[in-house]
């Protein structure tokens, strides 16, 4: 039986966490990962409050295991989201894209475990000072919103581990058991995985987007929109328009107009591969098939144990 601070904190069997990705992480994916022994997360950033409530209720019906909700702080209806999370009795919340001081204390008063996503040691310390129970240290390789410093996971994890005493969860460029082991040797106590779970049967994203993800090669993604909120995109017609605008020094207002409304929904949920915003991590270059989430979780865990050289049990004293 594997046990460390993260498995104990969340009450899970495997220190594998599915990221709360917009337009991909609904109740089907979250419950499938939780039922497989990891921690599934509902991504609330693309949900209206009533939709979030429905997904939480369906997730509770689909699994008796712990699951979480990811709350991006830039979401306009965040207060409504947090009220629903509290009313529905969600026990774990991952916050991102904002100041952890804003809501951590309030959530903890309701007995909720709080984890904040950071891209630097400085913000990891702020999360610890705010009372967060753990941090997700997300490196430059990640999809979705990213850090402007462009610190890679290989550098970020040991730096954050050195800076804080709370548990560190590694994210960014992780899709296999060997990558998981590497992150944990560097000081992480769990991994958060996004891109690999986007290419799962249960992800709510469009099949065309999933197929595009597994067709990606090295160099097909790039960090973009750094004037707004840095995001890693698959190169397509929309990205080319953004790149051209940025090359000629377009102002923030022009980029906002180009981005428009529902651009991510158009790409990832509706499957418009030309004009949609296609967010995914660099590790998409290693993916070649769409699989059930439970199989993905089992495969990662088995490879992690095999890589440790301990396929029948876990002697965690060798790395912790």
Please specify the SSE layout and strand pairing.
Layout lengths: L4 H6 L5 E3 L8 H9 L4 E4 L5 H14 L4 E6 L5 H10 L4 E5 L7 H6 L3 E6 L2 H9 L4 E5 L5 E2 L7 H11 L4 E4 L5 H9 L4 E4 L1 H4 L8 H8 L6 E4 L6 E4 L2 H11 L4 H8 L3 H7 L23 H16 L12
Helix pairs in contact: 2-3, 3-4, 6-7, 8-14, 11-12
Description:
- There is one protein chain.
- With about 325 residues, this protein is α/β, with parallel strands linked by helices.
- It has 2 domains: about 5-205 and about 290-320, TIM Barrel; about 215-285, no CATH class.
- The chain has 14 helices and 11 strands.
- It has helices at about 5-10, 25-35, 50-60, 80-85, 105-110, 120-130, 155-165, 175-185, 195-200, 205-215, 235-245, 250-260, 265-270, 295-310, and strands spanning about 15-20, 40-45, 65-70, 90-95, 115-120, 135-140, 145, 170, 190-195, 220-225, 230-235.
- The protein has an 8-stranded parallel β-sheet.
- Helix 4 (about 80-85) links the parallel strand 3 and strand 4.
- The protein is globular.
What would a concise description of this structure say?
About 40% of the residues lie in helices and about 15% in strands. With about 325 residues, the protein is α/β, with parallel strands linked by helices.
């Amino acid at each position: 039986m594997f046990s460390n601070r993260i498995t104990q904190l969340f009450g899970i069997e495997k220190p594998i966490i599915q990221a709360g990705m917009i337009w991909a992480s609904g109740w089907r994916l979250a419950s499938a990962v939780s039922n497989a022994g990891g921690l599934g997360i509902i991504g609330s950033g693309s949900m209206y409050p009533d939709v979030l409530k429905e997904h939480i209720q369906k997730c509770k019906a689909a699994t008796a295991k712990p699951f979480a909700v990811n709350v991006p702080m830039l979401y306009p209806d965040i207060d409504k989201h947090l009220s629903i999370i509290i009313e529905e009795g969600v026990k774990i919340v991952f916050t991102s894209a904002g100041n952890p001081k804003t809501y951590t204390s309030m959530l903890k008063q309701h007995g909720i475990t709080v984890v904040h996503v950071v891209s630097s040691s400085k913000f990891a310390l702020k999360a610890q000072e705010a009372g967060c129970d753990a941090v997700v240290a997300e490196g430059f390789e990640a999809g979705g919103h990213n850090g402007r410093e462009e610190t890679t996971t290989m550098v970020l994890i040991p730096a954050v581990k050195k800076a804080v005493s709370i548990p560190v969860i590694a994210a960014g460029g992780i899709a296999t058991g060997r990558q998981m082991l590497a992150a944990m040797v560097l000081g992480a106590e769990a991994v958060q995985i996004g891109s690999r779970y986007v290419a799962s049967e249960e992800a709510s994203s469009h099949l065309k987007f999933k197929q595009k993800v597994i067709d990606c090669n090295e160099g097909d993604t790039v960090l973009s929109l750094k004037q707004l909120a840095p995001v890693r995109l698959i190169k397509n017609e929309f990205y080319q328009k953004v790149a051209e605008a940025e090359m000629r020094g377009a102002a923030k207002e022009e980029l906002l107009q180009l981005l428009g409304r529902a651009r991510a929904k158009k790409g990832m949920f509706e499957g418009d591969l030309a004009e949609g915003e296609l967010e995914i991590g660099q590790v998409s270059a290693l993916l070649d098939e769409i699989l059930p989430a439970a199989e993905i979780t089992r495969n990662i865990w088995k490879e992690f144990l095999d890589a440790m050289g301990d396929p029948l049990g876990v002697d965690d004293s060798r790395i912790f």
